[in-house]
Structure formats: structure tokens, C-alpha cells
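--- STAGE predict ---
source: upstream dedup step, 1 unique chain passed
mode: sequence only
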Amino acid sequence: MGQDRIAENGQVPPSYKWQLVGLLYVAFFLNQGNRQIYSTVLTQIKAAADAGGLGLSDVQAGMVASVFTACYGLCVPLAGFLGDRLRRKWQLLFSVLIFSIGTLLTGLSGGLVALILFYGVVFGVGEAFYYPPATSLMSQFHEKSRATAFSIHQTALYVGIMFSGYFSGYLSRTSSMQWRAPFVLFGAVGILWSLVLLIFMRDTPNQKTAGSAVRVTVRETLSHILSKRSALLLALAFGCMVYVDVGFKTWTPTFLIEKFGFTPEKAGFSAVFFHFVCAFFGVMAGGRLTDRLAARRKTIRFEANILGLLLGAPFIYLMTRGSSEWFCFAMLGLFGFFRGIYDSNLFASLFDVIKPQYRATATGLMLSFAFLVGSFSPTMLGYLKSRFGLSFGLASLSLSYLLGGVIILVACALFFKKDFECEEAKA
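--- STAGE serialize ---
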């Protein structure tokens, strides 16, 4: 209670802002690591009942991941809306507790319906309520160190996915519980961490600003966003990218197991390690370059997005063609590097054409649309795998990247100048 009163009065010790980053780092590590478990142990889940699996078909296995992505996409806008109005400590506690319970119960599932309910719905809804309040809270405490805090927090995504990819595979192979073991362990750790957040996180009220007194209606917000054709096309292209990302993360471990005979832990680790390490360098390079050139070339962020998608597409295709695992790793890395170029400019591009008071809503809607599009990917790849093979299914993802690049090219050529100049004129 004393800590909460201090937070209410704005008298928070200077060290707390970094303590907060640490608390949220672990939460985000679990948030992303738990997602990776399913794709890492997917071959074991699909195995027949007498081999410890649930006997799922490729389409059914993909459907589970699709339900998760759809639930996430539907709930993200609500999470952003509530994050601006409710105490973020309690929203974050709810998120970590619910997605951890969903993770644990997934490990106890006895069939397809239970997997859809616990992993698809409970886990998906819980995950959706983490990111909006977490970034909002860090932003409030890190006005002068925001970029550093966000960068540190973002590395939890890469570390969580890579650690989970290896450890989940290892645990599923060595534990008597097989594929169930990582779900139960990660879920239990997450429940314990929600208790840590309850004890150490401040009940910090939302920041009040002068601008918050100006109430913007839903109609006005939607009217502004819908009038920006470049923003709408950015959202459509982002949907193409997420379609690739969700399908890639769901099925690549299975691809490596089937093509190269990898163990689950090697497949889970290799599927993401080379990709995300190179994505990190792409993010850093893309962000610095476009920030330097933005003052002289207004379209540079859109152009970086175009290059990221168009140049990344060939490496998605080539990843499935080579006979050597190291060739595959190299293609995964190059695919990741150009994905990083795209990621570094995604929301910066959106903010070039959306006024500040509408950006949070625009971001939420863009995320929601993209993840709803991406929700079709695991099921579609499961279908393509059963008909034409997994190599064909993963290779087809390159077409989605190409389509996204062309869409942003159209936005940049036809609509950006008008949208951007309108914002400058009103500034």
C-alpha cells in the first residue's frame, strides 16, 4: 500500500523504472517463449496416441495455431483501449496469469477440442493483453530513456523464442511427460511470476497530459484513419507479412525435422536462432539508416519496407530448396535480416501519415487486422503440406512477401505524398 501511494504521488525511486523493465522483461520472455513451444513439439503432438501424441492431422494441427492467432488479433484492440483507461498493473497481472494458465492446461489437454480451448482461446486471449499496457507503462517511466528501455524489453522476444525453441525440444525428448512437459513447466513458472508482479509492481495510475483533455470521438478517429489510403495499404501489407511470420514459426521446426532428421530441440532452436539473430542486425541497420535520411527523403521509411519485403521473398523460397542444412540456415538468416529492415520501419511508416492523437488506435487496428489475416496461415500450410508437401507450403509464403512489397510500392507512389503533406500542413 505504501508503494502504491508513492506511485500515486509520483514519488517513485529512480531505480524503479529499471526494476520495472526487469519485471516486464521476464514477463515478455515467457509471453514469447510460451508461443514457441507449440511449433517446437508439434510433431510429437501429431503422433498417434500409442506414441504419446494426440493423433492430429496436419490441418487440425494448423487449426489450433490459427485459433490462437485469431483470438490474439481480435483482443489486441480491446487491450489497447483498456490500457488507456484501467490500471495497467492489474491488466498485466491478468495477462501473465491467464496466458500461463492456458499454457499449463495445454500440457494437460487430451484432444483437439481441449487444445483449441486452452492454447487457442485461453492462451491467445491472455497473450493479447500484455503488449499494449506494458509499452504504455514503460513509456510513462522512461520519458528520457524510452528507446533504451524499449530496446532492452524487445530483446526478450528474441531470447524467449530461441531459448524456448531449444529447451522445449530437449525437455519433450528427455521427460517422461514428453511434449506435455514444457507446457506444464513454462505455465507453472508464469503463474509464479504473476505473483512476483503482484508484490513488486507499483499500482501506477495512467499518466495525465494536457492533450488527454481533448476527447476524440470514435467516428472522428475512424474517419481520419480511413481517409489515409497509404495507411490502409500499410495495414494490408502488414497482414501479408504476419501471414508469413505465423506460418513460418509454426511449421519450420517440423520442416527441419522431416527434411534433415533434426531432434525436436535442434529443430526448435535452429528454426528461429539464425533468423532472429540476423533480424536483430537488420532492425538496427534499418532504423539508423532511415532516421538519418528521413529529413532529406520523406518516403525513405516506406521504401525501406518495400525493400525488406521484396528482397526477403527470394530467401523464403530458397530456404526450402537446398539439400544442405547450412544452406537452409543461411537462407533463414538472410530472410531474417530483411525482415528486420521491414520491422524497424513498420510503425514509423504508419506514424508518418497518421496524426499523433489517432496513432494508438491506428496501431491497434493494424495489429488486429494483420493477426486475423495471419490466423489463416497455419491451417493453410497444414492443408498444403497434406496435398503437396511442406516444402511447397513454406515456399508459397514468398508470394505473400512479394504481394506485401508491391502493395506498399503502390501506397508510396500514389498516396504517400498527399497523406504526408496533409500532416505537415496541419503541424
